[in-house]
Amino acid sequence: MSSSPEIAYLPVAELAARFARKQLSPREVLAAALARLDAFEPAVNAFAFVDREGAMRAAAESEVRWMKGAALGPLDGVPATVKDIVYVKGWTTSYGSRVLALKSPATEDSPAVARLREAGAVPIGFTNTPEIGWKGHTDSPAHGITRNPWNPARTPGGSSGGAAVAAALGIGALHVGTDGGGSIRIPASFSGAFGFKASYGRVPAWPASAFGSLAHTGPITRSVEDAALMLNALCRPDSRDWQALPPDGIDYAAAMRGGVRGLRIAFSPTLGYLKVDDDVAALVRKAAASFAALGAVVEEVDPGFADPRRMRETLWWAGAGFRCRTLSAAERKLLDPGLGEVVEKAQAITLADFMAAGLERAALGAHMRKFHENWDLLLTPATPFTAYLADHDGLDAATLARYADRPAFTFPFNLTGQPAASIPCGMTPGGLPAGLQIVGGLYDDVTVMRAARAFEEASPWNFPREPGPRR
Questions:
Q1: Which of 117, 147, 198, 285 could cross-link with 202 by S-S, CB 3.0 to 4.6 Å?
Q2: Count of domains in the chain?
Q3: CA-to-CA distance for 443 and 107, rounded, in angstroms?
Q4: Distance (Å, whole) CA 80 – CA 100
Q5: Is-contact 99 331, C-beta < 8 A?
């Protein structure tokens, strides 16, 4: 019998193979995941809610299917988590908030959860998020601070921080995150996991986000193949999302094996305007060079757009202000103070500001469509620095302002709707992971997955078997 830690880190395909051979059961796999949750949760605070009874029932039902030879597919019996801004039938989504939480349990699953249930996956619980997923640092008024698996003194990033921590520590194999400006890719970079934001509409989402088409749903996993198998389920249609793309018929787990030979890849170390820490820059440059060794044509080229920070802030602040528009003055005082400031700033955004930002966004999207006529992929750092202190007390204003650049590399590709992934590309001398961002042309999700898989095979990654020491 495999040990609990070994079971917890098995990839999805191996779990399915062992289930089929009756060498392992879904209940044993769930027990391994819950054992790690119980051991590490006090140190990392990755979860907002755990549904042990529901997970045990789902695992038992999966076990019956495998014993009968009637499994629903490779995800059947695989433990999964869901970010606490997504609906799960019977669970009460809190959005990490004391004032914006649902008043009662959801009566239906959001599309991503529905697709995972249909595939037989076993939901464990909600992972922690900052309030309404508003920032790239996971702490919330409702559930407190989530901590990095490599160094609990550090943040795992956000807003899908709890999901990335659970992935890295083997607490389930499949993790549903959301990404409105980097909220899958930032925590994947800081926590050393794989995160994928598919093209807008590839993964149906409901209810509609206040952040509109900036907001995506997608996987955070320990491997590209696990994400591909998860994406095969997540991208199935759902009529509740009127902007969802039609099914593309692609088996991402098969298509990811194409390699990168002959691809034209642009490498932009700064997007032409950003400052990157030296340790991160060195790791990302080395990772970009490895694609040439894999047969791609790699050139250092900036995509040629100006910093979209003001556009980003206009659209994001407007969404936050709209989301919180019905709160009373007393309720606003209960918000995360930073979110409260954003909501106040949103009051000054005019209709002209908002419409102008929308036109700028359209121009950026068109610019990147033109860019990808010449380049199959764009490589950048996923974040300009590694994980910083989870507790902000004592940090000076200049440092905090620097950390506000968390989404600087990720947010442009929410504006354009392009597929983008973060994959670990090495450890800094400080013992923290860095992430490489791989960006594809709009709707070319397959090429991003192919490149990520090729890099993963060339640069294997190991995960922490327990939370690292604080330092």
A1: 198
A2: 1
A3: 32
A4: 25
A5: yes
**189: which 2 tokens?**
């970079």
Backbone angles phi, psi at 155, to 5 degrees: -80, 150
For the stretch 2-21, pLDDT in tens is 567 799 999 999 999 999 99
| Six token digits for residue 58 | 């789902």
Indicate whether this model's pTM tops 0.85: yes
Q: Are 463 and 188 in contact (CB under 8 A)?
A: no
Total Cβ atoms within 10 A of residue 392: 15
Domain that holds residue 204: 4-458
Catalytic residue set? 83, 159, 183
Q: Is residue 97 part of a domain?
A: yes
CA distance 35 to 130: 25
- Per-residue pLDDT of 29-84, as tens digits, reads 999 999 999 999 999 999 999 999 999 999 999 999 999 999 999 999 999 999 99
Residue 437 lies in a domain: yes
- Whichever domain contains 210, its CATH number is 3.90.1300.10
What are 328's two structure tokens? 């009373």
At 80, is the secondary structure helix, strand, or coil? strand
3-state SS assignment for residue 197:
strand
Report CA-CA distances (Å) from 239 to 55, 206, 209, 266, 286: 27, 10, 16, 37, 44
* 239 Cβ contact list (under 8 Å, min separation 6): none
The DSSP call for residue 245 is P
Q: Which two tokens stand for residue 32?
A: 């391994």
Q: At 189, phi and psi to the nearest 5?
A: -65, -50
In a domain, 471, yes or no: no
